[in-house]
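Help! Submission page says 'invalid entity' but I think these are all valid:
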Amino acid sequence: MAFEYELPPPPTHDIHSDLGEGDWIRRSASSVPAPARQLTPVAKLIDVSKCIGCKACQAACVEWNDLHQEVGYNEGVYDNPSDLTPDMFTLMRFTEWENPETQNLEWLIRKDGCMHCADPGCLKACPAPGAIVQYSNGIVDFVHENCIGCGYCVKGCPFNIPRISKVTNKAYKCTLCSDRVAVGQGPACAKACPTHAIVFGTKEEMTKHAEGRIEDLKSRGYANAGLYDPPGVGGTHVMYVLHHADRPEIYAGLPKDPHISVLVELWKGASKYAGLAVIGGMALFGLVHHLVTGANKVTPEDERDAERLAGSAEP
Amino acid sequence: MTKAERATGTEPGDDVHPGSPVTVDRYTVAARINHWITAISLVLLALSGLALFHPSLFFLTALFGGGEATRAIHPWIGVVLFFSFLGLFLRFWKLNLWKRDDSTWLGRLRDVLTGHEERLPEVGKYNAGQKVVFWAMSILIVILILSGIVTWERYFADYFSVTQERIAVLAHAAAAVVIISVWIVHVYAAIWIRGTIGAMTRGQVTGGWAWRHHRKWLRQLVSGKSKAPTTGKTAAE
């Protein structure tokens, strides 16, 4: 059987990156000129209904990105490690869920990692120029040379994805294998997935592919099957096919309506200008006040009064 | 000076020296050192904080050796400021307690700003404006240190939820804007009221300055001095 979304074999010569600075549409704490071209938006589609929880994607990610996650402890759950780390950009999250309608136990296995939001909260929150960039194909990437390790991206992210390394003091997350995509390859996780639960292509193709999958799931009794491409963050470039799309939160807390927190909007939005205006206003008030009233000077009369007062204390 | 006399509104080290002009000791060496450690910390905090506050001010990180160094050093300066200000707080809190006269003084802010001090009640060691600055600084520094700890990625990220961190960064930024504004008021007042800065450089002001701006305090110093010999006690007691 030929798979429709099988990735091409890797090229053996003439490899050149097709993803450069000119493709940035956003750059943290700075602005970029409008890109000369618009790349085709890409997407990774994770079909949760097809996932067997083998963690091949996790292993592939570790290998490709040369990550060295410390050996941990078995905490009595399948999740291993128990959370994303600076050395684990993607993580299988296992949920044992009892369907109240059928009384059946269902394994909900979700591959967690960066969603590559069209409106990235991390990028909005980042104070370091150029530490986070967004390409016109939708990939949101961290540029570690520019990262200062403040953790603002963690606060900005609606999906709780970035992790700060205690070793390098830099932020890490899934890159959507931007280095592989730049040479016409798909992400390592998609390449490694034995059940084709993870597929990669243009966002349009992936949406279409998801429609077929959703139709299939509905025909098999999953009436609420659907695509997770949350509009609150402008859509994402990592999408899920969920059998219970009406309840994303049962999949290890996938947010139902993710959006950049109003606290972050306030912190990074109007308050910056209001804050600088208040400070500038105070300084201006001082300047104007001094020009109008002049210095408040002690007069010789004041000194004489003080001498009279102090002198009266003398015997 | 005895305990009872101090309670009338002066601090240890406050003293008046008759002469021409009269000079008045307002701050001890220790108080001044304490003040300047706090002042330098606050300025460094404002500069390093503003660098991360708005992208247009990111260039300020160059003063601290780059973005990473700024991120690393800013919270530590905050710790220095906190303990340094704690010293000032313990020194000065008592004479900054709010009195009825202070409300009257503040109610006549227009007279204050236009220099009509003759229309104001006589002022002790601190006027209502200074008291407002003192308490604003105290409250804001507590907000800043607490929210700063929640935001301190390197050491405390694991102890707080993302929501708590978001509230903290917002509170930290807002408190920072206010404290910088209060600092501007504080510095401007010291410049506008000529003769003030000597209090924090040499520890002394002139009698005329004390008479004009803190007459009640001057009277207390003079009367305290005149009483001292009659009770047979020395200032050291």
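Support: the input was valid. A stray whitespace character was the problem, and the output above is from the cleaned input. Residues 229-237 of chain B have pLDDT under 50 and may be disordered.
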